[in-house]
Every structure is written in structure tokens, then in C-alpha cells.
Amino acid sequence: MTESPSIVSGSGAPKEADSRIVFALDLPSVDEARRAALAVRDAVGMLKVGLELFVAAGPAAVGIGRDAGRPVFLDLKLCDIPETVERAVASAAALGVRYLTVHAGGGAAMLSRAANVAARSPSPLTVLAVTVLTSLDAADLADQGIAEDSATHVLRLARLAWAAGLRGLVTSPQEVRILREALGAEALLVTPGIRPAGAAAADQKRVATPAQAIVDGADLLVVGRPIRAAPDPLQAARAVVAEIDQALAARSRREGAR
Q1: Which residues of 47-76 are buried (b: 16+ CB within 10 A; e: fewer)?
Q2: Secondary structure class of 243 (helix, strand, coil)
Q3: CATH (residue range 21-256)
Q4: For a surface tag, which of 13, 32, 34, 42 has the fewest beta carbons within 10 Å of its beta carbon?
Q5: Do residues 142 and 169 lie in contact, with contact meaning Cβ atoms separated by under 8 Å?
Q6: Is 205 annotated as catalytic?
Q7: Where are the chain's structural domains?
Q8: Cα–Cα–Cα angle for 7, 13, 17, nearest 5°?
């Protein structure tokens, strides 16, 4: 992959220093999100600010990362004309976020301009191209006039983003293995739709366990509800970390056997 997902150690660094969990702060207010972030920061590597929180609070939501000592993943899934997205990426860079999402379906020109802005950012910024939302399946794609299955469509969009200069991709865990095999170690693969064994899928359709996603080649796992809704969120996050650690060891053994 393009970079290590581990968190720089130092004051306030998580006990699980290489945590690959991106904790989704999908909450309606900054105060609630800050409390949730502080409760689990010892076990997560990054905080995700999505549409709900950003629309409610704006740039103040990004400040939660500073309070918790974690980098911020700004998940806005930008998709607009190239000029508008270029300016929005520049604004996100000025906020100091570490990751920012755009829709791969926005087209080559939009993706290329987003990549170029990120490359010029004075602070590290990785733009991630979202392929197909985890809430969609083949029937949903067919409703949009897309005849190919989700895996084929994900790979098509991933190659489009890759050609435009982006090396980070967001995909469901069901397509991670395909993208890893197609794009190699340079790709940074981020997977939402993570559900520990026994957890409800809710509105997600293409899901997998943390272990399966890691074994198949994921780098970072976006986890929200299974941690937020747990009776003890920190313990729930640490359970996911333990599962990830076991899966990383299994992946290492598998790669060493090749």
C-alpha cells in the first residue's frame, strides 16, 4: 500500500499503536461525537467525520480529532463538476484532515484534479475514491442501468480512479481481494461494511467480519455501529483490534507461504 496506516506514537497514542480501526462518528452533535471519540481513542487509529456530523457542525467537527489526538477521515463523498470538487478538496486540506473521500463515479477529470490538489497540500492528505456504496447490491445497480455485477463495477471504477492518480480506494470487504490482486501492494484499501460475527448488518448489504476483510487485504476498517452501540464501546473496539491482530498474523503466514 502507499503508506502505513499505523498511528504515530507519542503522547496520547493508542495502546494498540497500530490500530487499523477508523471509528465512524456518525452522531448528530459535536458534543456527542467528542464523548464517543474520547471513550474509544485508546483502541482506534482514526476518527471518521461523515455527512451527518459535518452538516450539523461544519469544520468544528474536525476539531474532535485534535481533542482526541487522532487524525481525521472526512467522509463527504464529494461528487460534482471538477472545479467545484477541486476547491472543496483545497478547503478540506486547509482543515488539516488526513483522508477525504470523493466518488469514483465523478469521472476522470474530477478525480485527477482532486489528486493534484492533495499532492500539493502542505500537510499530508490522501484522497480516497469511493467505488460502490456498501448499501447497494447487484439489484440496485441494475436499477441504475448498470448490468455488470458489483465486483466488476467496483474494479472498473477503481481502475478509473487509479488512472487519474488516486492510490486510495473505498470498497466493500467483498471486493477487497479482487482489488488487492488487481492493483497490488501500492493500493490503500479502506473497507466500510464491517460487522463482527453476530452483529446486525442493518442497511449494509455487502459486509464481512473484521478478520475476513483483513485476510483479504484490507488496510483500514471503518467501524461505527458495532462500537458505538455496544454496552462498553472501548471493550468492543478492543475486541475488533484483537480480531484484526489475529487476521494480520494469518495474512502474514499466507503471504510467507507463497
Answers
A1: bbbbebbbeebeeebbbbbeebbbbbbbbb
A2: helix
A3: 3.20.20.70
A4: 32
A5: no
A6: no
A7: 21-256
A8: 55
The cell numbers describing 14, all together, are 493508542
**Residues 56/82, Cβ–Cβ less than 8 Å:** no
Split the chain (258 residues) into runs of 10 and give each run's mean pLDDT: 42 55 96 97 96 96 96 98 98 97 97 97 95 86 88 96 98 93 96 74 66 93 93 94 88 73
Transcribe 26-87 into DSSP letters. --SSHHHHHHHHHHHTTT-SEEEE-HHHHHHHGGGGGHHHHHHT--EEEEEEE-S-HHHHHH
The residue annotated as part of the active site, out of 15, 48, 77, 205, is 77
Supply 141's cell numbers: 445497480
Q: Are 207 and 194 in contact (CB under 8 A)?
A: yes
Residue 133 makes CB contacts below 8 A (sequence gap 6+) with: none
- Cell (9 digits) for 250: 494469518
